[in-house]
């Protein structure tokens, strides 16, 4: 089902694994395996190695530094990268902004922003959610008023991942309050160094700093940083390419976690037996292994739909629900199997030798990872919203 | 492409669907036992379409088709609540024979099976070892002459064992630790007694007792590693077929339930308007999608990489047991009181999926087989 023959695919996978093994320092690969944060500078350094190899934006056309690969080859690439413990690059630059500019941007905007997005000279963040516009995103209220060749922007964005790292933001703003809510939204590119932009951290309950609140106080944005027509921003934002929706299944991540779970369960003993040989733990792992295989096939089925029909449609909602549920169940099992090794906080590893804190040699920072996965069940359409979508669009209820 | 049906599969699916719509009415036919369906209009129709020999090699008069086609058939069976001896005779027994070394007995049994002239019943399971088809405790002791044996003991859960013409019996040759053998015996052989009974879903089962039953090496269709491999292949395909039938049952039960939610009114509104019910239905839909993906994926793996595919067939059955039970239970619950009735019959799906998991193994059993196969393959 690939545009590669089985032997070509095999060679390609080996090529990727070798590249990761030789180009990602062991210390960084370990951090990835442990589920720890990769710093801004390490992330950028990795992206630049990918760019140098020609793999910086595999979903872009060659002309802009992409690859012109077909869907199946891109799928293999992304899967193998994740399996090989390569640091994941935030999706905002190449997977979100890039395709939007390629489809809706002007040639001038592409020339101005694509090279920096590729090379990460600019780190982008996404300004969509607002305090009163979460699952109901279209009710967003951040106001942009046209003043000559600029927009004056006032309002507040929230849950903005990585805004504290970002140089630029692509965001949705309200430009018309008189029409149906989806019809008065505009898509803007905003320089985070503009006067009037304030970024404040929002910490996850377990301590991580991923989210932020971003306030705009009379921020001026030139009109030539508008993507698409005024009031057409909702269409632009929704056009996030279909194939991005495959990623919501997180199947490669699930396979990695299953590997970790099995390794951990073979190590520690509880009573006279290794954990793996306890019937309850063995049954739990077996049950999860079945689901990980099912998730892998479901994702490949989604890919086949994309290739055959050009879209996955509402199947993406099932993928999303199952991907999250299975990843959460894996994290919970890892935390249970890791037992006391799960206790040290992420920060403790910054200060102490890991051998002092954690006896399991491939144990990751399970507690944090587990809590992190509560997030995707809420973000970009909570589980409940996905269920509404299925009920309405598939089940006709 | 692995997940979308080929033109040929779609054709099989359509014609089988039409056949079942014409000749199979679950409400009317619910009093039939599975063994009694052989010889009826549905069975003859499948014979005429060449489906009875689906997995029989072409040189023996069969279709020589693979797991993907088996999945197509069994999804239909599940959806239409067909009861028949297909699983035991045309899948498990036929696959055992297809994987046995060439010989005139094998050839005759396969030809007869494909032509709908005779059926063989797999007599493999014994008491106390549950679903473990690999454990043969029954011993064939040496007879008076070389190459002759005498068999005593009991086989349980023999699918349609009281109506099949032949029994495919697993045993040890000569002694407790003797070589594993698969022996094909006519059911009317002296010293064979099949006691038939009905399972709770209408499957005809038998306990078969052997009392000093004589046979010679001509009756042995496979032995040693070949016998083990034939059983592995047969029960893996059986697990896939059961998973596909469970998937079909889920699809049938779920569609009927959605129809009901749309028309049933309470508190002045169709109950489909209630978000609590919508979300439960959406979760079931997502579960069925997951199962569909795994059944189709595992069928493809069985057809392209048989060894790896066997493990995945057990994975499919493990998920099917879990999803099938949940979907079919919820189908009853969402119908309310009428869901409990024989008249409506929505509960028959639950009976069937639960019976399948008693026949091919429950979730822990199948998941364990998969985990074991997966770790062997990864050399962990």
Largest inter-chain contact set: A-B, 36 and 43 residues
In the CATH hierarchy, what is the architecture of the largest domain in chain B at level 2? Up-down Bundle
CATH class of the largest domain in chain A: Mainly Alpha
Q: The biggest beta sheet of chain B, please?
A: 8 strands, mixed
Work out the strand percent of chain B.
15-25%
How many distinct domains of chain A?
Answer: 3
Q: Kindly, what is the distance between the CA atoms of the first and last residues of chain B, rounded to a whole number of angstroms?
A: 30 Å
Corresponding CATH architecture of the largest domain in chain A: Up-down Bundle
Rg of chain B is 21 Å
Which sequence of strands runs across the widest sheet of chain A? 1-4-5-8
Number of helices of chain A: 14
Secondary-structure element pattern of chain A, one letter each:
HHHHHHEEEEEEEEHHEEHHHHHH
Count of DSSP helices of chain B? 12
Shape of chain A: globular
Topology at a glance:
The complex is a heterodimer of chains A (397) and B (380).
Chain A: H1 6-23, H2 26-33, H3 40-53, H4 71-83, H5 92-104, H6 107-119, E1 124-127, E2 143-147, E3 150-158, E4 168-174, E5 185-191, E6 197-203, E7 209-222, E8 226-227, H7 233-238, H8 251-267, E9 269-270, E10 273-274, H9 279-309, H10 315-338, H11 346-351, H12 354-357, H13 366-372, H14 383-393
Parallel strand pairs in A: 1-4
Antiparallel strand pairs in A: 2-3, 3-7, 4-5, 5-8, 6-7, 9-10
Chain B: H1 7-23, H2 26-29, H3 34-37, H4 41-48, H5 67-80, H6 86-98, H7 104-114, E1 120-123, E2 139-142, E3 148-159, E4 166-173, E5 179-186, E6 192-198, E7 204-216, E8 220-223, H8 224-263, E9 265-266, E10 269-270, H9 275-304, H10 306-335, H11 347-360, H12 363-377
Parallel strand pairs in B: 1-4, 2-4
Antiparallel strand pairs in B: 2-3, 3-7, 4-5, 5-8, 6-7, 9-10
Helix pairs in contact in B: 1-4, 1-5, 5-8, 5-9, 6-7, 6-8, 8-9, 8-10, 8-11, 9-10, 10-11, 10-12
């Amino acid at each position: 089902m690939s545009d590669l023959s089985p032997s070509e695919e095999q060679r390609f996978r080996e090529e990727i694994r070798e590249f990761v093994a030789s180009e990602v320092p062991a210390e960084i690969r370990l951090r990835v395996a442990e589920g720890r944060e990769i710093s801004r500078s390490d992330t950028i350094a990795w992206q630049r190695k990918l760019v140098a190899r020609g793999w910086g934006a595999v979903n872009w056309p060659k002309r802009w530094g992409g690859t012109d690969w077909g869907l199946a080859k891109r799928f293999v690439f992304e899967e193998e990268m994740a399996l090989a413990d390569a640091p994941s690059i935030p999706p905002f630059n190449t997977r979100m902004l890039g395709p939007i500019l390629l489809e809706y941007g002007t040639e001038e905007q592409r020339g101005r922003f694509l090279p920096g997005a590729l090379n990460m000279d600019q780190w982008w963040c996404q300004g969509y959610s607002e305090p009163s516009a979460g699952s109901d995103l279209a009710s967003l209220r951040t106001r942009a008023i046209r003043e000559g060749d600029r927009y004056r922007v006032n309002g507040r964005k929230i849950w903005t991942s990585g805004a504290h790292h970002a140089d630029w933001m692509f965001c949705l703003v309200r430009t018309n309050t008189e029409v149906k809510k989806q019809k008065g939204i505009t898509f803007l590119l905003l320089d985070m160094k503009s006067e009037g932009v304030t970024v404040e951290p929002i910490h996850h309950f377990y301590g991580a700093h991923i989210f932020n609140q971003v306030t705009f106080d009379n921020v001026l944005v030139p009109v030539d940083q508008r993507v698409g027509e005024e009031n057409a921003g909702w269409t632009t934002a929704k056009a996030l390419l279909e194939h991005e929706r495959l990623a919501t299944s997180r199947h490669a991540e699930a396979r990695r976690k299953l590997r970790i779970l099995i390794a951990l369960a073979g190590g520690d003993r509880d009573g006279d037996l290794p954990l793996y040989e306890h019937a309850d733990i063995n049954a739990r792992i077996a049950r999860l292994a079945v689901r990980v295989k099912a998730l892998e096939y479901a994702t490949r089925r989604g890919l086949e739909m994309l290739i055959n029909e050009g879209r996955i449609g509402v199947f993406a909602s099932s993928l999303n629900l199952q991907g999250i549920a299975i990843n959460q169940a894996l994290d919970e099992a890892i935390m249970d199997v890791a037992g006391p090794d799960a206790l040290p906080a992420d920060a403790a590893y910054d200060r102490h030798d890991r051998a002092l804190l954690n006896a399991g040699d491939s144990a990751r920072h399970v507690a944090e990872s587990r809590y992190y996965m509560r997030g995707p069940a809420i973000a970009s359409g909570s589980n409940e919203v996905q269920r509404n979508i299925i009920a309405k669009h598939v089940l006709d209820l | 492409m692995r997940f979308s049906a080929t033109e040929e599969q779609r054709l099989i699916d359509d014609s089988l669907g039409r056949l079942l719509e014409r000749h199979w009415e679950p409400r009317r036919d619910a009093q039939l036992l599975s063994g009694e369906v052989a010889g009826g209009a549905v069975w003859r129709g499948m014979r005429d379409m060449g489906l009875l020999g689906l997995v029989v090699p072409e040189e023996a008069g069969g279709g020589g088709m693979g797991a993907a086609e088996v999945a197509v058939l069994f999804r239909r069976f599940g959806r239409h609540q067909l009861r028949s001896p297909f699983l035991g005779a045309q899948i498990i027994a036929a696959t055992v024979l297809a994987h046995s070394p060439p010989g005139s007995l094998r050839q005759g049994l396969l030809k007869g099976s494909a032509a709908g002239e005779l059926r063989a019943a797999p007599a493999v399971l014994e008491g106390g070892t549950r679903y473990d088809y690999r454990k043969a405790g029954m011993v064939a002791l040496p007879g008076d002459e070389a190459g002759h044996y005498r068999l005593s003991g009991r086989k349980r859960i023999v699918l349609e064992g009281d109506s099949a013409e032949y029994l495919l019996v697993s045993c040890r040759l000569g002694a407790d630790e003797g070589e594993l053998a698969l022996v094909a015996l006519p059911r009317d052989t002296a010293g064979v007694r099949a006691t038939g009974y009905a399972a709770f879903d209408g499957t005809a089962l038998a306990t078969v007792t052997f009392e000093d039953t004589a046979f010679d090496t001509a009756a042995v269709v496979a032995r040693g590693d070949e016998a083990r491999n034939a059983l592995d292949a047969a029960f893996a395909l059986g697990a896939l077929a059961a998973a596909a039938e469970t998937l079909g049952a889920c699809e049938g039960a779920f569609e009927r339930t959605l129809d009901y939610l749309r028309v049933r009114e309470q508190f002045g509104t169709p109950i489909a308007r209630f978000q609590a019910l919508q979300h439960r239905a959406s979760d079931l839909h997502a579960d069925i999608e997951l199962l569909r993906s795994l059944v189709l994926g595992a069928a493809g793996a069985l057809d392209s990489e048989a060894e790896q595919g066997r493990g995945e067939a057990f994975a499919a059955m493990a998920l099917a047991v879990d999803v099938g039970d949940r979907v079919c239970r919820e189908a009853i619950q969402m119908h309310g009181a009428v869901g409990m009735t024989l008249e409506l019959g929505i509960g028959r799906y639950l009976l069937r999926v639960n019976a399948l998991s008693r026949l091919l193994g429950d979730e822990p059993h199948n998941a364990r087989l998969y985990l074991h196969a997966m770790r062997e393959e990864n050399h962990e």
